[in-house]
Write a sequence for this structure.
Protein backbone atom coordinates (compact mmCIF):
# COMPACT_ATOMS: atom_id res chain seq x y z
CA UNK A 1 0.00 0.00 0.00
CA UNK A 2 1.17 3.51 -0.80
CA UNK A 3 -0.02 6.29 1.47
CA UNK A 4 -0.18 9.99 0.76
CA UNK A 5 1.09 11.32 4.05
CA UNK A 6 -1.46 13.65 5.68
CA UNK A 7 -0.17 17.01 6.83
CA UNK A 8 -0.86 16.41 10.52
CA UNK A 9 -0.90 13.60 13.04
CA UNK A 10 -4.61 14.27 13.62
CA UNK A 11 -5.50 13.70 9.97
CA UNK A 12 -3.27 10.61 9.82
CA UNK A 13 -5.06 9.18 12.84
CA UNK A 14 -8.41 9.65 11.13
CA UNK A 15 -7.07 7.68 8.17
CA UNK A 16 -5.87 4.89 10.47
CA UNK A 17 -9.22 4.60 12.25
CA UNK A 18 -11.02 4.26 8.90
CA UNK A 19 -8.69 1.53 7.56
CA UNK A 20 -10.27 -1.68 6.21
CA UNK A 21 -7.23 -3.25 4.50
CA UNK A 22 -7.11 -6.47 6.57
CA UNK A 23 -10.44 -8.37 6.51
CA UNK A 24 -9.30 -11.01 9.03
CA UNK A 25 -8.36 -8.39 11.59
CA UNK A 26 -11.42 -6.25 11.04
CA UNK A 27 -13.66 -9.30 11.47
CA UNK A 28 -11.86 -10.36 14.63
CA UNK A 29 -11.95 -6.90 16.22
CA UNK A 30 -15.64 -6.58 15.39
CA UNK A 31 -16.42 -9.98 16.89
CA UNK A 32 -14.52 -9.19 20.09
CA UNK A 33 -16.30 -5.83 20.34
CA UNK A 34 -19.66 -7.54 19.96
CA UNK A 35 -19.09 -10.52 22.25
CA UNK A 36 -16.98 -8.62 24.83
CA UNK A 37 -15.39 -9.98 27.97
CA UNK A 38 -17.61 -10.56 30.99
CA UNK A 39 -15.81 -8.04 33.17
CA UNK A 40 -16.24 -5.39 30.45
CA UNK A 41 -19.80 -6.20 29.41
CA UNK A 42 -20.94 -2.62 30.18
CA UNK A 43 -18.27 -1.10 27.91
CA UNK A 44 -18.94 0.17 24.41
CA UNK A 45 -15.88 -1.37 22.73
CA UNK A 46 -13.88 0.74 20.29
CA UNK A 47 -13.52 -2.15 17.83
CA UNK A 48 -11.70 -0.13 15.14
CA UNK A 49 -8.03 0.34 14.17
CA UNK A 50 -6.24 2.18 16.99
CA UNK A 51 -4.34 5.37 16.15
CA UNK A 52 -1.11 6.52 17.73
CA UNK A 53 -1.16 8.57 20.91
CA UNK A 54 0.98 11.25 22.46
CA UNK A 55 2.87 14.47 21.89
CA UNK A 56 3.28 15.44 18.20
CA UNK A 57 6.50 17.22 19.18
CA UNK A 58 7.91 14.12 20.90
CA UNK A 59 11.58 13.23 20.90
CA UNK A 60 10.85 9.75 22.31
CA UNK A 61 8.91 7.23 20.22
CA UNK A 62 7.69 3.93 21.69
CA UNK A 63 6.74 1.24 19.15
CA UNK A 64 4.61 -1.67 20.34
CA UNK A 65 3.23 -4.72 18.57
CA UNK A 66 -0.55 -4.34 18.28
CA UNK A 67 -3.67 -3.46 20.31
CA UNK A 68 -4.83 -6.06 22.81
CA UNK A 69 -8.27 -7.51 22.14
CA UNK A 70 -9.71 -6.34 25.46
CA UNK A 71 -7.22 -3.51 25.96
CA UNK A 72 -6.82 -0.90 23.22
CA UNK A 73 -9.43 -2.63 21.03
CA UNK A 74 -11.83 -1.90 23.89
CA UNK A 75 -10.66 1.56 24.90
CA UNK A 76 -9.43 2.98 21.59
CA UNK A 77 -6.09 4.18 22.94
CA UNK A 78 -2.71 2.53 22.65
CA UNK A 79 -1.68 0.44 25.68
CA UNK A 80 -4.81 1.44 27.57
CA UNK A 81 -6.85 -0.91 29.74
CA UNK A 82 -4.53 -3.91 30.07
CA UNK A 83 -1.50 -5.07 32.06
CA UNK A 84 1.00 -4.06 29.37
CA UNK A 85 -0.34 -0.54 29.57
CA UNK A 86 0.00 -0.57 33.35
CA UNK A 87 3.70 -1.32 32.95
CA UNK A 88 4.21 1.24 30.19
CA UNK A 89 2.43 4.24 31.67
CA UNK A 90 3.85 3.69 35.13
CA UNK A 91 7.39 3.85 33.79
CA UNK A 92 6.59 6.81 31.52
CA UNK A 93 5.17 8.66 34.53
CA UNK A 94 8.21 7.77 36.61
CA UNK A 95 10.54 9.33 34.06
CA UNK A 96 8.44 12.42 33.40
CA UNK A 97 6.82 11.51 30.07
CA UNK A 98 3.26 11.05 31.43
CA UNK A 99 1.23 13.14 33.85
CA UNK A 100 -0.23 10.07 35.59
CA UNK A 101 0.81 6.43 36.05
CA UNK A 102 -2.37 4.76 34.78
CA UNK A 103 -4.24 4.68 31.49
CA UNK A 104 -7.77 3.35 31.82
CA UNK A 105 -9.82 5.07 29.12
CA UNK A 106 -9.57 7.72 26.39
CA UNK A 107 -11.09 10.34 28.69
CA UNK A 108 -9.08 9.69 31.86
CA UNK A 109 -7.01 12.87 31.57
CA UNK A 110 -3.73 11.18 30.62
CA UNK A 111 -1.28 13.38 28.72
CA UNK A 112 2.13 12.51 27.35
CA UNK A 113 4.98 15.00 27.14
CA UNK A 114 7.89 14.50 24.72
CA UNK A 115 6.66 10.94 23.99
CA UNK A 116 4.54 9.33 21.29
CA UNK A 117 3.28 5.73 21.17
CA UNK A 118 2.79 3.81 17.93
CA UNK A 119 2.58 0.15 16.91
CA UNK A 120 3.52 -2.28 14.17
CA UNK A 121 -0.17 -3.22 13.68
CA UNK A 122 -3.21 -1.11 14.49
CA UNK A 123 -5.83 -3.85 14.83
CA UNK A 124 -5.94 -6.50 17.54
CA UNK A 125 -4.83 -9.80 15.95
CA UNK A 126 -6.03 -13.27 17.00
CA UNK A 127 -3.50 -14.76 19.40
CA UNK A 128 -1.55 -11.48 19.33
CA UNK A 129 -0.02 -12.64 16.04
CA UNK A 130 -0.52 -10.44 12.99
CA UNK A 131 0.49 -12.11 9.73
CA UNK A 132 3.43 -10.88 7.69
CA UNK A 133 0.99 -9.56 5.06
CA UNK A 134 -1.00 -7.68 7.69
CA UNK A 135 2.16 -6.11 9.06
CA UNK A 136 3.18 -5.09 5.54
CA UNK A 137 -0.21 -3.49 4.92
CA UNK A 138 -0.05 -1.56 8.19
CA UNK A 139 3.56 -0.39 7.95
CA UNK A 140 2.85 2.72 5.85
CA UNK A 141 1.05 4.19 8.84
CA UNK A 142 4.15 3.87 10.99
CA UNK A 143 6.26 5.27 8.15
CA UNK A 144 3.90 8.25 7.91
CA UNK A 145 4.15 8.85 11.65
CA UNK A 146 7.93 8.85 11.40
CA UNK A 147 7.79 11.53 8.72
CA UNK A 148 5.41 13.67 10.77
CA UNK A 149 7.18 13.21 14.12
CA UNK A 150 10.14 15.27 13.02
CA UNK A 151 11.77 15.69 16.44
CA UNK A 152 12.14 11.99 17.35
CA UNK A 153 15.65 11.24 18.56
CA UNK A 154 15.19 8.04 20.62
CA UNK A 155 13.04 5.02 19.72
CA UNK A 156 12.17 2.23 22.16
CA UNK A 157 11.03 -0.92 20.35
CA UNK A 158 8.95 -3.40 22.34
CA UNK A 159 9.65 -6.87 20.98
CA UNK A 160 11.33 -8.22 17.87
CA UNK A 161 8.37 -7.58 15.54
CA UNK A 162 8.10 -3.94 16.62
CA UNK A 163 11.88 -3.59 16.30
CA UNK A 164 11.94 -4.89 12.73
CA UNK A 165 8.79 -2.98 11.79
CA UNK A 166 10.36 0.28 12.91
CA UNK A 167 13.54 -0.37 10.92
CA UNK A 168 11.48 -1.20 7.82
CA UNK A 169 9.15 1.80 8.21
CA UNK A 170 12.14 4.12 8.65
CA UNK A 171 13.84 2.68 5.56
CA UNK A 172 16.89 1.35 7.39
CA UNK A 173 16.08 -2.32 6.82
CA UNK A 174 16.76 -1.88 3.10
CA UNK A 175 19.52 0.71 3.37
CA UNK A 176 21.65 -1.19 5.86
CA UNK A 177 23.30 -4.52 5.31
CA UNK A 178 22.10 -7.37 7.56
CA UNK A 179 25.32 -7.06 9.56
CA UNK A 180 24.84 -3.31 10.04
CA UNK A 181 21.18 -3.45 11.09
CA UNK A 182 20.54 -2.93 14.81
CA UNK A 183 19.99 -6.41 16.22
CA UNK A 184 17.16 -7.13 18.62
CA UNK A 185 18.19 -8.04 22.16
CA UNK A 186 16.73 -6.73 25.38
CA UNK A 187 18.55 -3.57 26.40
CA UNK A 188 20.54 -3.34 23.18
CA UNK A 189 21.32 0.25 22.20
CA UNK A 190 22.14 1.20 18.61
CA UNK A 191 22.73 4.48 16.82
CA UNK A 192 21.44 4.78 13.28
CA UNK A 193 23.36 6.69 10.60
CA UNK A 194 21.08 9.72 11.08
CA UNK A 195 21.92 9.82 14.80
CA UNK A 196 18.63 8.37 16.04
CA UNK A 197 19.16 6.03 19.02
CA UNK A 198 17.24 2.74 19.09
CA UNK A 199 16.78 0.91 22.39
CA UNK A 200 15.32 -2.60 22.20
CA UNK A 201 13.22 -4.12 24.96
CA UNK A 202 11.13 -7.17 25.59
CA UNK A 203 7.43 -6.39 25.31
CA UNK A 204 5.68 -5.98 28.70
CA UNK A 205 3.20 -8.74 27.89
CA UNK A 206 1.91 -11.02 30.63
CA UNK A 207 3.88 -13.84 29.02
CA UNK A 208 7.10 -11.91 29.70
CA UNK A 209 6.27 -10.17 32.99
CA UNK A 210 4.59 -13.12 34.71
CA UNK A 211 7.49 -15.44 33.91
CA UNK A 212 10.22 -13.01 34.96
CA UNK A 213 11.63 -12.74 31.45
CA UNK A 214 11.03 -9.01 31.88
CA UNK A 215 11.41 -7.67 35.41
CA UNK A 216 10.59 -4.19 36.73
CA UNK A 217 14.33 -3.51 37.12
CA UNK A 218 15.02 -4.47 33.50
CA UNK A 219 12.07 -2.42 32.30
CA UNK A 220 12.97 0.69 34.26
CA UNK A 221 16.55 0.52 32.99
CA UNK A 222 15.33 0.80 29.38
CA UNK A 223 13.47 4.04 30.01
CA UNK A 224 16.12 5.43 32.31
CA UNK A 225 18.54 5.00 29.43
CA UNK A 226 16.09 6.61 26.99
CA UNK A 227 15.67 9.59 29.31
CA UNK A 228 19.43 9.91 29.75
CA UNK A 229 19.97 9.80 25.99
CA UNK A 230 17.53 12.66 25.49
CA UNK A 231 19.07 14.70 28.28
CA UNK A 232 22.53 14.17 26.80
CA UNK A 233 21.37 15.42 23.42
CA UNK A 234 19.63 18.43 24.91
Amino acid sequence: MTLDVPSTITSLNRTIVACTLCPRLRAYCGRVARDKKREFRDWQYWGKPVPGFGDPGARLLVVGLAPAAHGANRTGRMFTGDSSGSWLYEVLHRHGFANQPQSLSRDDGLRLTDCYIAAAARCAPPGNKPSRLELDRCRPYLAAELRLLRRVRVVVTLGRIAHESFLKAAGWWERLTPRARPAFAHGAVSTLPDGCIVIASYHPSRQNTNTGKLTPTMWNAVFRRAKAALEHRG
Remarks:
- The two ends are 37 Å apart (CA to CA).
- Residues 216-233 form the longest helix (18 residues).
- The chain has nine helices and six strands.
- The first strand starts at residue 53 and ends at 54.
